[in-house]
Description:
By secondary structure, the chain is of the alpha/beta class.
Amino acid sequence: MKAVRLTGWGRGPAFVDVERPVPRATEVLVRVEAAGLCQSDVHVVDAAADTLPYEPPFTLGHEVAGRVETLGPDADGATPGERVVVYGPWGCGLCARCAAGRDNYCDRRGDLGWHGVGLGRDGGMAEYVLVPSARHLVPIGDLAADQAAPLSDAGLTSYHATAGVRHALGDGSTAVVIGVGGLGHLAIQILRATTPSRVLAVDIREAALALAHRSGAHASTLIRADTGRALRTGTGGVGADAVLDFVGNEATLALATEILRPGGELVVVGSGGGQLTVRKPGFLPPGFRLSLPFWGTRPELTEVVALARTGTLHVETEQFPLSAAQTAFHRLRQGAMRGRAVLVPDP
Ligand code: NAD
Ligand code: ZN
Ligand code: ZN
């Protein structure tokens, strides 16, 4: 079968032939209908050796939707032909966190040797993907595959990130979303659907601000020298109750702490390599809380799928055949993508 693989650090994604896997024990083979392309895939492909806790070669693709093909002899809880999305942050499967469907915070995460499907383990940018257990499959019914695949990371991570700060986003509150790409545009929709907050969006691209508006943002602005002041004015002068940073570089972290209300919530999702220095006494907003969410839980993925099936969430996608993965990577790198790129196996 065809697959998009990382064959070595710094070598870029390769479109190659590999053996179609055969499910053993509790494994489930899923025929891929769509696989999302995340900015994290670009970070992984660009990573230097020894900077990530796993090694190539492996097939990329950590947002996967498809149809159950065959089951291993001990697999239980999936039916051939069933359409599913794959819960990606596979944990050890044995600890209390994994038992509760919180594999993203598996107690053995540091020793696993992978981050999840397509991140150290063979992923979904292929015709088939092997899933270790049916507990990682969430039924999607007749949801379109290009909608379902991005839910498993862009949707789930945004949902988990907002769920962690929902307590701060009551009536009259303001949330700021920095970076309106694959994750950010869904975060705006999720904030609108699950909180009464006013949602402001920030990006460096006009096209992303248009996407923010289509996603339900009340207002948006390009990053400029005076953006902090403008955003603060937009909160009536008090600052934002929560800032969700889907970029995470030096500039966005500085902006986030500048506009945060005292006692506010800063959620850093983006892996942009920025650093935040904590020093007391200092100039950080008093009482602010910082979180660094990783992906999301399996029960949350079920909730995200339910939101999409009722039409509350809509993923803006650009589709590419699997054989054009390199073009999709290139466009994402150039900042030319609108919403989420989704790869679909060639006919
Ligand atoms: P994306 O490329 O689709 O979107 C990023 C958006 O940020 C784009 O619209 C871009 O124009 C904008 N942007 C870039 N630089 C900016 C700046 N300086 N100021 C404001 N906006 C800026 O990326 P994505 O797939 O949505 O991923 C976003 C980030 O989240 C990436 O760093 C990715 O690795 C990370 N991520 C983290 C997790 C997690 O579990 N924590 C999960 C998935 C993705
Ligand atoms: Zn991702
Ligand atoms: Zn575990």
